[in-house]
Amino acid sequence: MVWGSKCRSKATMLLFSILIIALLNVSSVEARIRRYKWQVNTEYKAPDCFRRLVITINGQTPGPTIRAQQHDTIIVEVTNNLFTENLAIHWHGIRQIGTPWFDGTEGVTQCPVLPGTTFTYQFVVDRPGTYLYHAHYGMQRENGLYGSIIVGLPEGESEPFTYDYDRNIILNDWYHNTTTDQAVGLASVPFRWVGEPQSLLIHGRGRFNCSSLPIPSSDPGLCNASYSDCSPYRMIVVPGKTYRLRISSMTSLSALSFQIEGHNLTVVEADGHFVEPFVVRNLFIYSGETYSVLVTADQDPTRNYWITSNIVSRNAPNTPPGLGVFVYYPNHVRRSPPTTPPAGPVWNDTRLRMEQSQAIKARQGYIITPPAVSDRVIVLLNTQNEIDGRRKWSVNNVSFTHPKTPYLIALKENITDAFDQNPPPNGYDEANYDIFIVQPNKNATSSNGIYRLDFNTTVDVILQNANTMNPNNSETHPWHLHGHDFWVLGYGEGKFDKFKDAGKYNLVNPIMKNTVPVHPYGWTALRFRADNPGAWAFHCHIESHFFMGMGVVFAEGIEKVGELPSSIMGCGQSQGLYRP
Question: How far apart are alpha carbons 55 and 42 in whole angstroms?
Answer without folding.
Answer: 5
